[in-house]
Structure formats: structure tokens, C-alpha cells
Specification:
Layout: H1 2-27, E1 31-36, H2 42-60, E2 63-67, H3 72-81, E3 86-89, H4 91-101, E4 104-110, E5 117-125, E6 140-143, H5 149-161, E7 171-174, H6 178-186, E8 192-196, H7 199-202, H8 210-213, E9 214-224, E10 227-230, H9 236-249, H10 253-263, E11 267-269, H11 273-285
Parallel strand pairs: 1-2, 1-3, 6-7, 6-8
Antiparallel strand pairs: 3-10, 4-10, 4-11, 5-8, 5-9
Helix pairs in contact: 2-9, 2-10, 3-4, 5-11
């Protein structure tokens, strides 16, 4: 009887160890966090990007999860701390994370124009008498986020170049998203908004009359494109794998179309570091200390 009990106990112990081993393996499964800034409804953005994350994960041989936050800075801080492994972020966010957390720019996105960048534009309603940047003096403006290149930094610099003091000559607010800015403009809650060149095409489904109701009054110089930024805590081998996987995935028309629809990205190429230095100069014009932005 004693031998039988010992045998049973031995079997139970073996199965228990096997179970623990399986759980341990599951826990050690590598999961990469992909960070994206909240350019639109955060929950919808995560849902829309999930098929892309799945395709990328299949190429990498590991799971990729999408992360966003309530602000651009939240995503930047995540990449800086290592809780987010890499991100698809606007160029100003890339420069911030480079400066503050020694992150690395792996790739830059090509826009629908084929260029590794895009333009900021200032929009007003077509029924408005505003014809130029100078006409915005005394008006209400919606910017997107203090860390948005097209939605604030470059547009704000254009206003300053036109002799407009942002703190004295206009009233402004941060909407928290390009779609939210457009909603404010269409509702006549503001007189103008700052956004990017393809925003009308991007949000035609949400706002069917956008093309008929809104016009552009100013356009910036070329801004570096959406940038793939790797956390300093992500090992070099995995960084290389992520970079290679993205270069391969751009040839998958169905998968890259997801990024085209969301961020106007049609492919990737090596980043030009000189282009990011231009952002630093624009930041100086906007009195932004890149080492202190929080």
C-alpha cells in the first residue's frame, strides 16, 4: 500500500512540475509593446492597429501589443522608461525621446507623396472671411497637443512668423486629437485649426461634408515623417529584427494599407538626422526646451 501511495505521489509530482514548467514558459514568452500617440479615438486606434501588430508579430516570431496613452507625452515616457519597446510617433515626439531618453530612430515613414515627411496646414471654414495667417489675429484656434509637430509646433511657428503673439493675439486650446480639432472647427467653436496635409482625406468618413466646408490658408515646410523609435532598453538584436520586419512588411499591400489609412505611411526608409535638427530649430523659435518638456 505504501509503495502504491509513493508511486501515485511521484506521478502527481512529475505532472505538477510539468505544469509549472509550462506556466513558466508562457510567462517568459516575449511580448513587444508598440506605442502610438493618440491622434484619434484611442480605443479605436488600438483596434485598427491590431491586425498590423499581428502581421508584424508573425514576422518577428513574437507577440506585438499596441499601446497608447491620453497624451503624446504619455507614449514618449513609456518608450523612455522601457515599458514600451518601440513606437510609431510624430517627429517632434521622436526628437523629444532622443533628447530625454537616448532613444534611436530606426526608420522614417514615407507619406502618400512618396516623400519621407509631410506638411502642417492651417484650416478654416469656407464660409469664413479668414484668408491668411495674418487674419487669425484676435481669433480662436484649436491646436492638437503641445507635442504635435503639425498640430502645434510648426503651425505655431507659422503664426509667429506672421507677427502673431500666441499668448496675446489669439485664444487657443489643445483638443487632444486631429479629429477633435476638426469637430471644433465644424461646430464653429473655433475659427481655425492646425493639422496635417491629408487630414481631410483621413476623416471624410467621420465628417462627410469636410471637403466642402473646410479650406487651407497656410502650409509649412516639409516635416520629417512618422518615425519608428526604439527604446534604449530594447536590445540591439531585437531592434534590428523590428527594422527588418518593417522593411519587409511594406511590401505587403494589405498590411501597409493599415498604416496608410491611419498615418498616411506608404513605406519606410532610413531616417535623415539633419531633418530632425530642423525640428530643434523650430522648437527654439517656439521657446520649447526639449530637455524640460513633460
Amino acid at each position: 500500500m505504501k509503495k502504491i501511495l509513493i508511486t501515485i505521489f511521484s506521478f502527481l509530482l512529475v505532472f505538477s512540475l510539468i505544469g509549472c514548467s509550462q506556466k513558466s514558459t508562457t510567462k517568459e514568452e516575449k511580448v513587444l509593446k508598440l506605442g502610438v500617440v493618440p491622434s484619434s479615438n484611442s480605443e479605436k486606434l488600438v483596434d485598427d492597429l491590431t491586425p498590423f501588430a499581428k502581421a508584424l508579430g508573425d514576422k518577428l516570431g513574437m507577440k506585438v501589443e499596441v499601446f497608447t496613452a491620453s497624451s503624446y507625452i504619455g507614449v514618449i515616457e513609456g518608450i523612455g522608461s522601457g515599458s514600451v519597446d518601440f513606437g510609431l510617433v510624430p517627429p517632434f515626439s521622436a526628437v523629444l525621446s532622443n533628447k530625454q531618453s537616448n532613444t534611436k530612430n530606426l526608420l522614417v515613414g514615407r507619406s502618400t507623396s512618396g516623400k519621407p515627411g509631410y506638411f502642417a496646414e492651417v484650416f478654416v471654414r469656407k464660409d469664413s472671411d479668414i484668408k491668411s495667417i495674418a487674419d487669425l489675429k484676435g481669433k480662436k484656434i484649436a491646436f492638437v497637443d503641445p507635442s504635435s509637430a503639425s498640430g502645434y509646433i510648426y503651425a505655431g511657428a507659422m503664426l509667429k512668423d506672421a507677427g502673431i503673439d500666441l499668448e496675446k493675439d489669439i485664444k487657443y486650446q489643445f483638443s487632444g486629437g486631429h479629429d477633435k480639432s476638426l469637430q471644433l472647427l465644424l461646430n464653429k467653436d473655433v475659427d481655425a485649426v492646425a493639422s496635417y496635409e491629408n487630414v481631410i482625406r483621413k476623416y471624410t468618413k467621420e465628417f462627410p461634408t469636410l471637403k466642402e466646408d473646410v479650406k487651407v490658408i497656410a502650409k509649412s515646410e516639409l516635416i520629417p515623417g512618422v518615425t519608428v523609435v526604439a527604446s534604449n532598453n530594447l536590445d540591439e538584436e531585437t531592434q534590428k529584427k523590428v527594422k527588418q520586419a518593417l522593411l519587409e512588411i511594406q511590401n505587403d499591400k494589405e498590411t501597409i494599407q493599415i498604416l496608410t489609412n491611419l498615418f498616411s505611411i506608404t513605406g519606410f526608409e532610413e531616417p535623415n538626422n539633419d531633418a530632425y535638427k530642423a525640428i530643434e530649430k523650430i522648437s527654439e523659435k517656439m521657446n520649447i526646451d526639449l530637455n524640460k518638456v513633460k
